[in-house]
């Protein structure tokens, strides 16, 4: 790939961005006086700030690079990650689940599990979540370093160290508050940097109709009907009708329900932003406000990938070819930046890309240091220490989290498709956890033993399914088939991930119910007050204007999402 040719103004934009990021941490350092300030921003973040941070915490490498790669590989069906998955899940967590998280005064998602179930369930979730955040942070770090190496010619090792040092500095100084305000800055940068790319790309291919026409041969050459790359729903009748290789039930159940609800409703990385809001009402509105810009993000991150594969097909060789002989989808965004943006806009676009990586790293590291300090160190290693002691531990955990992320970044060099890999991790961790939360919040009979062993069995079921299946063209190992006989071959890695998630969720759901019914309840109704739906006072929003009521906002968000699904049917 040809390296980007940056002008003086492009380097100036990059330097201003890095100075601003570090400056935010420096300014906020005086406000960090307690562990609560460092880990949950003293619960003082305004609603709209918390909403944008809730959205931006998810805008890491997997969102920008991964969604563009999926847009090129799977086409418009990738929009289901938003319009079937993320948006309905964000409405659900805002209206139904946030009262439990915020009202219980838990400082983390694992701590909620301790209050609702018991210590062992909290411990299991804390360790698996901490490992997942390190892995996710490392992927963002790897992607950023690879980008700097590919487009600027910087050394990979130097790029890893530089990105790690910057994120470490502003989190160490300003804690979660610094990360949140930087995420808001990064949100606007991503919109301003990618919007010109989309507009210039669409103009070049003749608008949406021109793009649809150029994608038709991409689909027919792959053996599908002409609209398979440009339609969201029309080709979901059978796995053989679309490039994702999944039918409507696998899409709705695997992605729409299990994976998306599992991620947005239980992942502390995003829930932590809403828990930092200034009031219960603000916390409930946080994911709903975030859902409004979230629903237009397919235009910013998926459409560029679709344009890239259309140009690759029509002109030949637009995307670099990977070691497997296929286009390297992960490079769709960098190639588009180099192809379309002139000096000045190129600096803005590159800064937006870097901002997304920084956002992904910072979000995961702040979640890691909170869970490590509260749910592992304070719970099992040194309980009963002073608040200053835990604040120091939080600082140390930030450094350790960054160092472990560096190790994860080097481990990621072994993979060539970050989005498929991330969904596999979520299928193992988030899918069974969502079943645990559903039963814990809406069924008071669920017990600690049921939750703990249900989680274990759900993860075990995911491993068994993955070990007995393979995606088409895959070899036994990381992509599955490691248990011997392959009982099912899926058309794609994504289809395999969806069904792994369905199996994990179902196994955890059924096992938790059966084990709970066979064991004694370990919590009284008094202990479960505020933690279970039937024992929690309903939120009264009658004194709020209609446009501020969470339920009204939720209906508006779902209505707009339905319109988008119909428009791109």
Would you kindly provide a written description of the structure presented here, covering whatever features stand out?
The chain has 569 residues and is mainly α. 72% of the residues lie in helices and 1% in strands. It has 22 helices and two strands. It has a two-stranded parallel ribbon. The longest helix is centred in the first third of the chain and has 50 residues. The protein is globular, with a radius of gyration of 23 Å. It starts with 7 loop residues before the first helix and ends with a helix. The model has no long low-confidence stretch (mean pLDDT 83).
What is the averaged pLDDT score? 83
- Percentage beta strand: under 5%
The total of helices stands at 22
Radius of gyration, taken over Cα atoms and rounded to an integer in Å: 23 Å
Q: Sum up the overall morphology in one term.
A: globular
The termini sit apart by 35 Å
Helix content: over 70%
> Regions with pLDDT < 50 over 5+ consecutive residues?
none
Helix-and-strand structural type = mainly alpha
Largest sheet strand order: 1-2
Secondary-structure element order, as H and E? HHHHHHHHHHHHHHHHHHHEEHHH
Most strands sheet: 2 strands, parallel
- The number of distinct β-strands equals 2
């Amino acid at each position: 790939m040809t390296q980007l040719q940056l002008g003086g103004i492009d380097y100036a934009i990059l330097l201003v961005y890095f100075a601003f990021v570090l400056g935010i941490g420096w300014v906020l350092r005086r406000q960090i006086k307690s562990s609560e300030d460092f880990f949950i921003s003293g619960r003082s973040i305004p609603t709209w700030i918390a909403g944008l941070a809730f959205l931006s915490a998810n805008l890491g490498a997997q969102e920008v690079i991964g969604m563009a790669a999926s847009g090129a590989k799977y086409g418009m069906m990738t929009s289901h990650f938003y319009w079937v998955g993320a948006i309905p899940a964000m409405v659900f967590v805002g209206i139904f689940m946030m009262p439990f998280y915020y009202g219980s005064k838990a400082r983390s998602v694992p701590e909620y599990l301790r209050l609702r179930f018991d210590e062992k369930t909290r411990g299991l979730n804390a360790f698996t979540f901490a490992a997942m955040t390190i892995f996710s942070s490392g992927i963002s770090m790897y992607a950023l370093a690879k980008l700097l190496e590919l487009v600027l010619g910087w050394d990979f090792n130097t790029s890893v160290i530089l990105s790690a040092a910057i994120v470490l500095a502003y989190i160490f100084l300003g804690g979660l508050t610094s990360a949140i305000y930087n995420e808001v800055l990064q949100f606007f940068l991503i919109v301003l940097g990618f919007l010109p790319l989309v507009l210039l790309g669409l103009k070049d291919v003749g608008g949406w109709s021109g793009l649809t026409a150029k994608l038709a041969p991409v689909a027919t050459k792959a053996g599908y009907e002409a609209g398979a790359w440009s339609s969201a729903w029309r080709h979901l009748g059978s796995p053989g009708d679309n490039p994702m290789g999944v039918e409507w039930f696998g899409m709705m159940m695997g992605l729409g329900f299990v994976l998306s609800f599992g991620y947005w409703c239980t992942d502390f990385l995003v829930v932590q932003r809403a828990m930092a809001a200034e009031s219960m009402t603000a916390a409930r509105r946080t994911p709903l406000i975030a859902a409004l810009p979230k629903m237009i993000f397919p235009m910013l991150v998926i459409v560029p990938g679709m344009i890239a594969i259309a140009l690759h097909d029509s002109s030949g060789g637009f995307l670099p070819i990977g070691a497997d002989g296929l286009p390297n989808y992960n490079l769709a965004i960098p190639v588009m930046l180099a192809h379309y943006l002139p000096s000045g806009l190129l600096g803005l676009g590159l800064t937006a890309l870097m901002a997304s990586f920084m956002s992904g790293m910072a979000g995961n590291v702040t979640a890691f240091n909170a869970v490590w300090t509260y749910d592992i160190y304070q719970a099992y290693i040194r309980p009963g220490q002073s608040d200053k002691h835990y604040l120091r531990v939080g600082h140390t955990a930030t450094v350790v989290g960054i160092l472990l992320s560096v190790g994860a970044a080097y481990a990621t060099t072994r993979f060539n498709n970050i989005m498929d890999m991330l969904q596999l991790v979520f299928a193992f961790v988030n899918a069974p956890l969502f079943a645990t939360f559903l039963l814990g919040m809406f069924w008071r009979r669920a017990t600690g033993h049921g939750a703990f062993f249900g989680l274990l069995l759900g993860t075990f079921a995911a491993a068994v399914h993955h070990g007995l299946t393979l995606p088409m063209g895959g070899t036994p190992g990381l992509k599955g088939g490691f248990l011997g006989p392959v009982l099912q071959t899926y058309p794609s890695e994504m289809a395999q991930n969806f069904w792994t998630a369905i199996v994990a969720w179902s196994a955890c759901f059924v096992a938790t119910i059966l084990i709970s019914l066979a064991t004694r309840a370990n919590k009284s109704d008094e202990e479960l007050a505020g933690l279970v739906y039937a024992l929690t006072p309903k939120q009264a929003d009658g004194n709020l204007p209609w446009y501020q009521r969470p339920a009204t906002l939720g209906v508006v968000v779902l209505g707009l999402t339905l319109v988008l699904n119909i428009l791109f049917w």
